[in-house]
Amino acid sequence: MAPIKARNYINGEWLGTAHEFESLNPANRTEIVGTAPASGKVEVDQAVEAAKQAFKTWRELSWVNRAEIIDTFAQLLKRDLGEIAALITRECGKPINEGRADIVEALHMAQYMAGLGRLPIGYAISSEVPAKDAFILKKPKGVIACITPWNFPSAIPLWVILPSVLAGNTVVFKPAEQTPICGHKLMELFHEAGFPAGVINLVHGTGEDCGDPLVKHPDVAGILFTGSRAVGKYIQQVASGDLYKFVATEMGGKNGTIILEDADLDIAVNACILGCFKTTGQRCVSTSRIIVDKKVEAEFTKRFLEKVARIKIGNGLKDEIFMGPLIEAGGVDKWKLHNQKAKDEGAEVLVEGQVLTGGDYDLGNFVSPFIYRMPYRPNTFCLREEAFSPHVAIVPVDGMENAVEVYNDTDYGLSMAVITEDYRKWRWVRDHADYGLGYVNLPSIGAEVHLPFGGVKASGNGNPGAEGIMDAVTHRIAFTVNHAKEIVMAQGLSTIV
Considering all CA atoms of the chain, what is the largest pairwise distance in Å, rounded to the nearest integer? Predict the structure, then answer.
């Protein structure tokens, strides 16, 4: 398949740059999926200016008008679903069923936003003075920078772009440099759907050359970012210098699945297989700590390892593949580092992960799961830091309260699952664990677009994506109208002088 030539999209025009970079298939590094412009400050300035000018007219449309364009876009996504799913698998490596799930989730977001355009965007509220009407309304903020990761190259961009434009904002979209071709495909569909010039602009490039001038640009009113803790923290620090800039960040997790003594172990094993190894552990919500009651630890571990041994690893375009490659060589190096740290910290290695070689494995970034048992100790690197790979600890604990104590002992707080048949226990865990996404008798992964998606502590600043992002891209304003022939104030102030 010939490489796709991606371009920037600024003010309704497809534009290139003097320099380009390649996007490679992580399952076959000899395949160039496409090339993309290596953009910098000049292109960012052009895109922000286009968005700034388009905001003047885009905000004047009704929510219904804007939603109708999003609905057209949703039909195009549905039309090209199979094509985009295969592109996702080729460019980010995850198996084709996950590629399909990614674009289906993107479609769900588009459908949800299209429907939301006909729902109330504010409400009337009683004033203390009978002759006054009071309203709370949502107004757009302006130009929104959307900086998105490679692991969900269609779903996460739409989590942030579509609420932004539905609310009347305009957007500059910078996809991850690992998946520029997926970003380009989305932009082609935005163009075909009929978004006016300047409403959604696309710039490709690295975080340093393209992302940095975007977050620093004085005309950017808000920044929506999903990625690493270090970069998210940096963006928050940069934005704090401009008092008007709003930032919503989602920054990964050291997620845990808690298995209590009364757990259904079939559910527990399947939840952990999905939570640990889907997307090769490269989800911000992936389980990397299995926190299991000592009373069932031995039986759980036996069943879990038996199922892990059956995982098929390879090129995700094959339907039978469960786990694909890591995204790039740096991901393999990070996986090796975390594995070695676990050994250095006294882990009992249960499954020695390997860099896979031979045949098609030689062409990609393939590794097998690394699984170890480690009794809990505070301040342990491998039990506290995100590995973003198939690197999994089994941590034995004494009961429910100890399980939650262990789960909370990390700077992160994104996703948590608990496996139990006792509603009183899951309720206690729900109320005492630190997380933004909680599940009972389910894996730690899984998102529905009509629910907020985000975390606490180092996992985010409390402004989640998907459904929750609407509050981040609008101002809630108070608007009061006096219908009387005199001014009457709620606090008893008078015009008498």
Answer: 91
